[in-house]
Amino acid sequence: MKKYDINYFLGANSPKGFVSFFDELYLTDGDWRCFVLKGGPGTGKSTLMKGVAKEIERRGYEVELIPCSSDPDSLDAVKCEELKVSIADGTSPHVIEPLFPGAVESIVNLGEARNDEKLHGESDRIISLTRANSACHARCIRFLKAAGLLVSDSRRLCESAVLEEKASLYVKRFIKRSGRLSAGRQGREKKVFLSAVTPKGIVFFRNTVRRFADQIIEIEDPVGLVSSIIVENLRITALKNGLDVITGYCPLDPTGRPEHIIIPEYSVAFIRKHAYYGDIKPTRTIHAKRFTDIEAAGRQKQKLNFNRKAADEMINEAVLSLKKAKEIHDELEEIYISAMDFDKLDEIRRQTVSRIFGES
Fold it and tell me: Is the dihedral of CA 193, 197, 199, 200 positive or negative?
């Protein structure tokens, strides 16, 4: 029996809009298959994925569950490395268009169980709710953009105070003493969001860290600059030396340096400490002060405190916008649910399971 579930986000609301790592779901070679679900809101995509995941687990395989950042109780995707299979919501905002239709990706059309004539009678309401939902998401992104600018400003204020060479040397020493390296092999990176801004606030998956790491090293770094330098150096060094890594990117800076890293072969994780993430019960803690010119950083204290408080307010407003968006989406889903044939949906689920296990 596994100790911890594996959860992470592959899509997140960010200052740059919705950012997706959905290309991490499957490889286009190596005998992988991806079942792409289409059908609109309330057509049973998440329910189908949960049902398929449960059946895969019942047959003794480990499943990775990828929740939706706009509704963490729903799924965006399911992935099983052992079976080389994934099932994903292929609708907006994370549209998946097959590169090798049939050979790798297969479309599962849940619209076959949908009564479109009934929905046409609700078209005015559906259009109105869809536009209102989009407006809430756009408002969320505006607040996240403001928060991202404040976070970036804090990092710029501290750049000259960071002893980057000292941080880099720490990483080299850590890798050298930690264990076996695979010379001549390039490690594989899995990009994920271990945290995301959601209608429930910032959700952080501690369970995934604990699943892959017995040793959890927490980096206490309010600004996030030292931690990003350490994690990025670990990422580069580990991959260069043949170690596979799971890198957790920050939803406020999704294309920048990652803020977390897990090295499963070493059973170790470096996680940036953050008030939003709660207590992850680390094995030990590294303080950013160790790699900082304390006097230089101290001169920016007032500005940093202002930026932190203001960024928190922006994030809170973004969360409120997502809560409103979810309320609207739930209302939209109710309309679609009333037009679905659930016996047909259950048949589609059974067919999908059969195809996964080669029983059809």
Answer: positive
